[in-house]
C-alpha cells in the first residue's frame, strides 16, 4: 500500500488539511480542449464549472426518452446497482449505465465532455463510476454534505485528487427542486472525517450517507472560507456541471412537484487507477468503482441522434 496522503476515518477527531495535488493538471498534449483560460481559472478557484445548454433541445429529448426507458427497465429490479428511495419503491439511482452497450455508453464518450475532462486532468481518462440520478417530485430525499474523493479514497483506493465529475442536467434545475449545492473553494481543503467504515457500508450509504460526512465545525469553517457562499447548480435541461472530486457538495430534499434528473459520469485519469482501499477493507463492487478492463476513452464526435437508430432495442 502506498503512503496515505489523505487519511480519514481513523478516530473520533475531524481534521482539515490542505490538498496535496494540483487542481488543474497541466499537460501540453491535452491543452487543445474546449475550456478557455477563464474556464480553467474559474475551475481552479471554485472547484466547478457550469455550462448552460451544452446539449441542445433535440439531444435532451433523446436523453429523456432513454432515461424513461432505463427507469422502466429497472423499476422492478431488486439488485444492488439499482438504488431505491428510503421508504418507497421510487428509483433514486441506476449505476454503471456507461456499460449498457447503447445510448449511454455512446454519451459517455461524447467529445464535448471527454475533451473537457482530459484538459482538466492532463491525461487520457476512463470512467470509474456512472449513474442516473432521479429525485422525484414531493418525495426525493436529501443527500448530506460530502466530498466524493473522501469516499473514493477510503473505500475504493483512489490514490490522488485527479478525477472530475460530469453531471448532465436532464430536467430544469430550480432553486426549489433539490439542486446540487456546492461550496466554492472547498476543493482546496481535505476534511478528514471521524469514525470508522462499517463493512459493506455502500449498502446503506447510497440511500443515506452517514459515514464519511464532515462534522459541523468543519462545514462552518469551509463556508466561512468561501465568504458565506453556498452556490446552487441551477439551469435548464441540457446544461452540464463539471466539479472537482474533492468539492464539498450536497442537496436538499425535493418537496416541489418537479422531478430532478441527471446523468452522472466520473472521469478519472488513466494515471490514477484505483488501488487497494485505504480503509483496509475489501473493494466495493465493480458497479461503484470500475477496475476491470480499464481502457482510455477515445472521444466520439458523432451526433447523439445517430445512436438512437444504431442502438435501438426491439
Fold and architecture overview:
- With about 325 residues, the chain is an alpha+beta fold.
- Helices cover about 25% and strands about 20% of the residues.
- It has eight helices and 13 strands.
- The strands form three sheets. It has a seven-stranded antiparallel sheet with strand order 2-11-7-13-5-4-3. Strands 6-12-8-10 form a four-stranded antiparallel sheet, with no helix packed on it.
- A hairpin with a 6-residue loop joins strand 3 and strand 4.
- The relative contact order is 0.25.
- The model is unreliable at about 310-314 (pLDDT under 50).
* Silhouette: globular
Number of domains: 1
CATH superfamily: q2cbj1_9rhob like domain
| Secondary-structure arrangement, i.e. CATH architecture | Sandwich
H/E topology pattern: EHEHEEHHEEHEEEHHEEEEH
For the largest beta-sheet, the strand count, sense and barrel status come to: 7 strands, antiparallel
User: Biggest sheet: strands side by side, in what order?
Assistant: 2-11-7-13-5-4-3
Radius of gyration: 18 Å
Percent in helix: 10-25%
Query: Which quaternary structure do these chains form?
Result: single chain
Strand content: 15-25%
Amino acid at each position: 500500500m502506498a503512503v496515505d496522503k489523505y487519511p480519514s476515518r481513523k478516530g473520533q477527531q475531524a481534521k482539515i488539511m490542505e490538498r496535496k495535488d494540483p487542481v488543474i493538471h497541466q499537460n501540453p498534449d491535452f491543452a487543445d480542449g474546449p475550456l478557455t483560460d477563464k474556464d480553467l481559472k474559474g475551475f481552479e478557484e471554485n472547484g466547478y464549472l457550469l455550462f448552460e445548454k451544452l446539449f441542445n433541445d433535440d439531444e435532451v429529448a433523446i436523453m429523456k426518452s432513454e432515461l424513461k426507458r432505463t427507469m422502466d427497465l429497472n423499476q422492478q429490479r431488486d439488485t444492488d446497482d439499482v438504488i431505491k428511495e428510503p421508504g418507497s419503491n421510487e428509483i433514486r439511482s441506476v449505476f454503471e449505465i456507461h456499460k449498457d452497450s447503447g445510448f449511454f455508453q455512446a454519451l459517455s464518450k461524447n467529445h464535448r465532455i471527454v475533451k473537457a475532462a482530459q484538459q482538466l486532468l492532463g491525461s487520457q481518462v476512463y470512467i470509474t463510476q456512472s449513474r442516473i440520478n432521479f429525485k422525484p417530485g414531493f418525495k426525493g430525499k436529501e443527500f448530506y454534505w460530502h466530498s466524493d474523493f473522501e469516499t473514493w479514497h477510503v473505500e475504493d483506493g483512489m490514490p490522488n485528487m485527479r478525477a472530475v465529475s460530469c453531471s448532465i442536467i436532464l430536467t430544469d434545475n430550480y432553486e426549489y427542486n433539490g439542486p446540487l449545492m456546492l461550496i466554492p473553494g472547498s476543493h482546496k481543503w481535505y476534511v478528514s472525517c471521524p469514525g470508522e467504515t462499517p463493512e459493506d457500508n455502500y449498502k446503506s450509504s447510497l440511500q443515506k450517507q452517514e459515514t464519511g460526512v464532515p462534522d459541523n465545525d468543519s462545514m462552518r469553517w469551509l463556508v466561512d472560507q468561501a465568504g458565506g457562499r453556498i452556490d446552487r447548480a441551477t439551469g435548464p435541461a441540457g446544461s452540464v456541471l463539471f466539479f472537482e472530486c474533492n468539492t464539498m457538495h450536497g442537496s436538499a430534499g425535493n418537496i416541489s412537484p418537479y422531478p430532478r434528473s441527471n446523468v452522472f459520469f466520473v472521469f478519472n485519469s488513466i494515471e490514477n487507477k484505483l488501488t487497494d482501499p485505504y480503509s483496509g477493507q475489501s473493494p466495493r463492487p465493480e458497479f461503484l468503482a470500475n477496475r476491470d478492463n480499464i481502457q482510455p476513452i477515445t472521444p466520439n464526435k458523432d451526433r447523439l441522434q445517430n445512436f438512437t437508430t444504431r442502438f435501438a432495442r426491439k
